[in-house]
């Protein structure tokens, strides 16, 4: 793919004596929002960790922004929001973001910017430990936005959020992409698939398809993306010996 931000070729990951990601290959276009979707436990987080460079892999090649995944040169170019928030409960939102901004050598003005981006202005001086689950997730997302990274890898960033806030964050994702940021967003909620430019659908450690939402609808003959995904699952099961 021309102008590719991420290239994954034959990725294999083993854990606990079994292969949890099996020969996965795909490319992610620069400046696009790519959705990594599938049920819990299908391998989404493992693939994301491999792209960020924190996962031990058994085989394959992962190239990110022209560098091997995990290269020191990528540390300030990638923003990563984990599924389990990695923020300190005994700090306020502002204090926590100032701490991570210093580590990333991001400008101090970034703290107010990212707090506003995720809608936490009124919670800025609350302790992280006193936030609700959704607020906690947004504080975690704010850390990934520090420094204006070229690639954002977001693992279930909208889980537990109400529909209004989820819509607001997707508006943020689209505006970031329009400004040139590449986003890889994982979810197990299929109604978010229509918001993506391209879809990577996984199940049982395998990549079932790499397509646009419209391409997936056309291929399966289903206007509903959840039904389209189920159609692919049935195809996969029918092909098994």
| Structural shape | globular
| Major sheet strand order | 6-7-8-3-9-10
- The residue fraction in helices comes out at 25-40%
By DSSP (H or I, 4+ residues per run), the number of helices equals 7
Q: Estimate the strand proportion.
A: 25-35%
- The parts where pLDDT drops under 50 for at least 5 residues are none
- Average residue-wise pLDDT: 90
Q: Using the coordinates above, name the CATH class of one domain.
A: Alpha Beta
CATH architecture of one domain: 3-Layer(aba) Sandwich
Q: Summarize the main sheet.
A: 6 strands, mixed
The topology string of helices and strands comes to: EEEHEEEHHHEHEEEHH
Would you tell me the structural class of the helices and strands?
alpha/beta
Specify Rg, calculated over alpha carbons: 18 Å
CATH topology of one domain: Rossmann fold
The termini sit apart by: 33 Å
By CATH, the superfamily of one domain comes out as P-loop containing nucleotide triphosphate hydrolases
Total E-strand runs: 10
Per-chain topology:
Elements: E1 4-15, E2 18-29, E3 33-37, H1 44-52, E4 59-64, E5 67-68, E6 78-81, H2 93-104, H3 109-117, H4 133-145, E7 151-155, H5 163-178, E8 182-187, E9 198-203, E10 206-211, H6 213-220, H7 225-239
Helix pairs in contact: 2-3, 3-4, 6-7
Describe this structure in words.
The structure is a single chain. This protein has 241 residues and is an alpha/beta fold. It has a domain at 4-77 and 149-239: P-loop containing nucleotide triphosphate hydrolases (Rossmann fold). Helices cover 34% and strands 27% of the residues. The chain has seven helices and ten strands. It has helices at residues 44-52, 93-104, 109-117, 133-145, 163-178, 213-220, 225-239, and strands at 4-15, 18-29, 33-37, 59-64, 67-68, 78-81, 151-155, 182-187, 198-203, 206-211. The strands form two sheets. Strands 6-7-8-3-9-10 form a six-stranded mixed beta sheet, with helices on both faces. A four-stranded antiparallel beta sheet has the order 2-1-4-5, covered by helices on one side. Helix 2 (93-104) crosses helix 3, helix 3 (109-117) crosses helix 4 (133-145) and helix 6 (213-220) crosses helix 7. The longest helix has 16 residues, at 163-178.
């Amino acid at each position: 793919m021309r102008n590719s931000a991420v290239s994954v070729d034959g990725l294999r990951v083993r854990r606990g004596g079994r292969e949890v990601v099996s020969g996965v290959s795909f490319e992610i276009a620069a400046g696009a929002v790519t959705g990594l979707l599938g049920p819990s436990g299908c391998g989404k987080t493992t693939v994301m960790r491999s792209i960020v460079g924190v996962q031990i892999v058994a085989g394959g090649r992962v190239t990110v922004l022209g560098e091997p995944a995990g290269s020191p040169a990528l540390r300030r170019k990638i923003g990563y929001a984990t599924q389990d928030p990695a923020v300190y409960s005994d700090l306020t939102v502002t204090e926590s973001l100032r701490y991570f901004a210093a580590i990333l050598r991001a400008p101090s003005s970034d703290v107010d910017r990212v707090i506003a981006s995720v809608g936490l202005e009124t919670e800025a001086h609350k302790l992280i430990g006193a936030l609700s689950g959704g607020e906690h997730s947004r504080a975690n997302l704010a850390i990934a936005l520090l420094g204006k990274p070229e690639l954002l890898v977001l693992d279930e960033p909208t889980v537990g959020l109400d529909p209004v806030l989820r819509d607001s964050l997707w508006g943020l994702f689209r505006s970031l992409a329009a400004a040139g940021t590449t986003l890889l967003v994982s979810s197990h909620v299929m109604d978010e698939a229509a918001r993506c430019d391209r879809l990577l659908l996984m199940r049982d450690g395998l990549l079932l398809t790499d397509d646009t939402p419209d391409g997936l609808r056309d291929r399966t003959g289903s206007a509903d993306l959840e039904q389209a995904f189920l159609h692919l699952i049935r195809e996969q099961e029918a092909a098994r010996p």
